[in-house]
Each structure stands twice: as structure tokens, then as C-alpha cells.
Amino acid sequence: MSETKKFMYVNRHAPYGTVYALEGLEVVLIGAAFEQEVSMAFIGDGVFQLKQGQDTVDSDMKNFSPTYRALGDYEVNRLYVERESLEERGLNEDDLMPLTWEDEDDDWAEKKSIHIVSRAQLSDLLEAQDVILNF
User: Fold this and answer.
1) Number of domains, the chain
2) CB 7 within 8 A of CB 125
3) CA atoms of 46 and 23, how far apart (whole Å)
């Protein structure tokens, strides 16, 4: 039996204006459907992908941010947001969507999916992955 590989999807781009964010999210959902061990990292302008209250009316692009709420259903519950990237953009944890997942091993307790980590902690997490995909 083969060992499950750890996949981290690194999101570096703002949610709108390019296809990176949407395509990255779609690839994550596909990977999770195939039972990969999936986590996501949000750095640089990628932190804006998780910002609450996204308004895309002026961009002529569909607001796909509600899709992030489905990640817990696909067992994607490790979303790492780099603290320094948030701070550099004038954001904090309260500006992010309240994403959760239900832990079936803990009587379906609702738990946070977003974990704020330092740049150094994120570096360690990246080093522990088998596969890293950048979007």
C-alpha cells in the first residue's frame, strides 16, 4: 500500500484580476476528492483570498470566495496564513472569513480551519511537504 503524500498549495496572488486564485482552489478541491493530504498556505497578496466581504461587482468576475466554506467538507482544514503578509497589508485575523470544519473524532465539534503562522513556521511547514504547488 502506498503512503499518502502531503500536498501544500501555496496561494500568492490576489483573488481577482488573474486566474491563479480560482484555478488554485479548483485544483485543491480535485486533489482532496482523490484523498490527498491537502493543506493550503496564503502568503503575499494571497491573504486577500480569505478576506471577508469580497465585492466583485466592479471586476466583472464571479465572487468565488464562498467556495472556501466547502473546504472542510473535503477534509481540507489546514489553511496557513502568514502573519507577516497579513500585517504588511493592514489586515489581521478578524478580517478573514470564519472558516471551520467538523471533527468527527471529537463528537463533530466545529474547529477553525485558518491557522495564523509566522514566516519561520510556514518555512518549516513547507519543508515537511512532499509536493508544493504554487498559484
Assistant:
1) 1
2) no
3) 13
